[in-house]
Amino acid sequence: MTPAKKLLPLLCVSLLLSACSTSNSNKQFIVIPPSESQIESSVKDQVSLTLNAFTPVAGQALPNHSVLEVYKARGYDPIWIQDKKINMSIYKLVDILEQSYTHGLNPIHYHTAIIKEYLELKQPTPQQLAEMDVITTIALASYAHDLSNGRYEPQLIDPNWQLDAPNNNWKDLLYFDSATDMVNSLPLLAPRSPQYQVLQKWLVYYQDLGAKEKDIFVNAGVPLSAGDEGPRVAQLRARLVQLGDIRFSTRKVNEEQFDLRLKEALIRFQRRHHILADGAAGSKTIEMLNTPLKVRAKQIAYNLERWRWLPSELEANRIWVDLTNYTVDMHLNGELTSMKAVIGKPDRKTPVFKGLMTYMVTNPTWRVPHRIARENLLPKLQADPNYLVKHGYKVYSSWSIGAKELDSTKVNWQDISEEKLAFRFEQEPDEGNALGQYKFMFPNKNEIYLHDTPSKHLFREEDRAFSSGCVRLENPAEFAREITKGSKQFNEMTKALKNESNTVISLPTYIPVYLVYFTVVPNANGMLEFRNDIYERDALMEEAMGYAAFRARDSI
After folding, report:
1. May I ask which residue range the UniProt record assigns to the signal sequence (predicted)?
2. Nearest C-alpha neighbor of 520 from the set 248, 216, 202, 108
């Protein structure tokens, strides 16, 4: 049974409402075209029925309610039928929907097969035209929403992902005067970031390549390095050509010889996969080389969806905390300043969210978060009752403003469990303070902020996930200068540092802060970087975005 025919039983109630149906006739199609009033009446009947038939699946942000509102606003006028003719833009829409995979979306969600079946009907009834109109509008609205805001709800995938910036541009499109304008405006809903556009081009490349060619894999064996020869070297060269690290050249080479050009290409590959760039193909490098094209295409698709969760346009001035790159990028006044960062360890993930940096603190006191006090500080106190004194901490009886300061050496820490720990711990400003000389605040429910640190040695590490969630800066003094440059607050900050005073300084201009997580990112040369998925978030994306067809008898 075809999809269109499967749908009809769900809509059988409307057969009684159709002006052109007769109870004692086997005739399926009318000879005379239906009137506009007949179609409008059928559209009104079909809207709620069809919306129920195409109800959202759990976790998928399908904007069906908006479709109902659009038809109400139009007085249930059809969108895709004008002057008794089907608007030709519907065919362009079907083409766009069938190409939705180029954005990492799944065409199965946009009902193109069903729409095409209706379009193939020679003499459709008013009911069939109404069904087609409503289903096509559902498909348009769903795709417009998904392209603009992302298809999936990020917090249903990962509660630690709190960055979702929906906009209503897709809704505005549904109220355009004509279906033609709606369809022509669809491509404008995609994120405007150049990074999104580059990712999309690479997705198409990997999809096309995977469809046309088989993966060229490098056989396991001893590491390959400059000067080696043999068929495995030829495999290595061919794989790097396939992945774009070696550009096609008419220059003749010995395919089985590991020459300087091959070594340089391999180093480029290693750098963009964040592995040791030694120009030799060891086990880790071969593992990365042998990752199938289809797997890489999926990874790109996950990151396109993450871009759709961001605002469609980013502020020119912003702080960009790139968690998978362990860096903080300052986009201020047309200039980019970057520095290394230390982020949360895997069991204390730095969340993904957006904040607004409003003030900074010089020589801050560190008020130890309750979780860190329970999990880190209490065990150290139980091992050494003098730990607080040695490291410049004070302890107070509670978290209230008037809490009494206690003598930590007289508290029996052995008798206190994590669940009953109610003290407040504060570390006074000094060179050993966990926050160093600076704290940069963008108030948020996660109590996450950027700050200095005395543990400078950690910035020498390649993978820098060592903190309890907050972000430590390699060069906080430079960061402080950039956000106060040219203002009176700069002088205020300089004075506070000189006097070693604990001072709160409001920023001259509030700055948006993005904490973002991408596992595939275009580099400066337009090639793709595949980064370590340190928080294992791609697996959650795979679970949410995967699609597997099922048989009708397996459904409820």
Report:
1. 1-19
2. 202
Q: Tens digits of per-residue pLDDT, 481-515?
A: 999 999 999 999 999 999 989 999 999 999 999 99
Catalytic residue set:
451, 470
Question: What are 367's strand-pairing partners?
Answer: 426
Q: Which tens digit of pLDDT belongs to each residue from 421-441?
A: 889 998 888 777 889 999 999
CB 235 within 8 A of CB 218: yes
Single-letter residue type at 307 = W
Separation of alpha carbons 432 and 380, rounded Å: 17
Burial state string for 414-431 with b = 16 or more CB within 10 A and e = fewer than 16: eebeeeeeebbbebebee
Q: Which two tokens stand for residue 98?
A: 């069938």
Mean pLDDT of all residues in the chain? Answer: 87
For residue 417, the Cα-to-chain-centroid distance in whole angstroms is 39
pLDDT of amino acid 31 = 40
CB 394, CB 405: distance < 8 Å: yes
How is residue 133 written in tokens?
Answer: 């109109």
For residues 17 and 41, is the Cβ–Cβ distance under 8 A? yes
Which residue, among 254, 295, 286, 331, has the nearest Cα to 519 in the 3D structure? 295
CA distance 400 to 197: 51
For residues 96 and 78, the answer to whether their CB atoms sit within 8 Å is no
144 closest CA partner among 85, 79, 75: 79
Contact 534, 465 (CB under 8 A): yes
Burial degree of 40 (CB within 10 A; 0-12, 13-18, 19+): buried
Query: Strand (E) positions, 249-314?
Result: none
Element (H, E) at 329: strand 327-332
Q: Residue 374: CB partners within 8 Å, gap ≥ 6?
A: 418, 421
Task: Single out the residue of 554, 551, 541 nearest to residue 157, CA to CA.
Answer: 541
Please name the residue that has the structure tokens 């963008």: 442
Q: Cα(182)–Cα(186) distance, rounded to whole angstroms?
A: 6
Closest CA to 297 of 228, 203, 363: 203
Which two tokens mark 211? 């469809």
**Which contiguous run of DSSP H or E holds residue 110?**
none
Rg (CA), the chain: 30
CB 483 within 8 A of CB 513: no
Contacts with 45 (C-beta within 8 Å, 6 or more apart), sequence order: 13, 14, 17, 127, 130
DSSP secondary structure letters along 484-553: HTTSHHHHHHHHHHHHT--EEEEEEEEEEEEEE--SEEE-TTSPEEE---TT--HHHHHHHH------GG
| Contact assessment for residue 281 and residue 236, using Cβ atoms and an 8 Å cutoff | yes
Q: Looking at this protein, which amino acid is placed at residue 62?
A: L
Strands 335-344 and 465-467 come out as parallel
**What is the distance of C-alpha 45 from the center of its chain?**
39
Q: Whole-prediction pTM value?
A: 0.85
